[in-house]
Amino acid sequence: MHRKRVSCLAITLLSLVMMKVAVASESKSPQQLLAWFADEWDDSNWGPGKSRGYMRSLDDRGWQARMKAMRELATHGKDAVKPLVKALQSKHTPTRILAAQTLGFLARHIEEAPLMKAAVSDTDAAVRLYAVDALGMRGNRRLAEQLAPRTKAEKNGDVRKHLAYAEERKGEPADTNILRTFTEWDPKTMNTARVGAAAPDFTLATLSGKKYRLSDFRGKQAVVLVFIYGDT
Length: 232
What we know:
- The chain is an all-alpha fold.
- The chain has helices spanning about 1-25, 30-40, 60-75, 80-85, 95-105, 110-120, 125-140, 145-155, 155-170, 175-185, and strands at about 205, 210-215.
- Helix 2 runs antiparallel to helix 3 and helix 6 (about 110-120) packs antiparallel against helix 7.
């Protein structure tokens, strides 16, 4: 009986080891994640001048690929920085946007120069916007002074607002808990809301740290959750 238990335990341990190996083998490198995102993202029916403007359809899967790729890239930590900096030079604009936004979470691991170059010279406003955000999250007491010429030259209203947000940080870097919270987020909770059905419960914190839970308002008052593109 004792030998049988030991044998079963050994088989269980071996199975766990094999499972870990399988999971590791399925994980993508930063380069693979960027390539996967580029394949998944579809801009054909989105953007200015298109029938839906800047609104993506309810069945669009691109935003899910974007969130998954960004989270996995952030999980790689500083190992993802070099591929992301290289991706800032990509001819594929959505990849440059993804790279600039993700670098905000990893800003403490990156030199300022590539972000400043993207913030100043990229032809796409969204890339400039997220590069500015990343610079603000990186932290630099002289950032406002360095960005002042760009603030005067920038023609896009959203980018100008984010330049102001970066300056308002007063050189303070982003809290490291932001990265940890993001990497611990479970992508399986994505796309769980359904039109016409009760919203999944969630908790959000204000800038002052006060937390609000959706279920606390159930039966008491209506709740409107708004994400304003370019102004948050």
